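User: structure tokens for this one?
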Amino acid sequence: MMMYSYNENQLTVKNNNIDFLSSIEKIIEIDDKLLVLVKDKSTKKIKTQGNIYAINENAEIIWEIQASTPFDGWYRPFTGIYIRDDIAIAYSPLGIEYKINLDNGRLVDIPKQRPW
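Assistant:
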């Protein structure tokens, strides 16, 4: 288990701090990484995704999540992350779940879901 703490937008791992631009919503640990979901403070429509980060035990950002498929030409920030059957899942406000490749932050589609 990785030892860490957080307050608002600051994550501390082994006495090293990472300051995010927005507040931390959720942290999950999987495969020696912390996946950090930060709240998006922009409008609901954004040009990039980037609100889930992988952090290693040295408090380094390994990757920022890949953008999901745009809807109406805009991306929506992810609203949740969780682990199901040892797989990290990102959840979008459009009701779509994606598997997260933990090596690079790329998304893997889960078949038979919306969008419409």
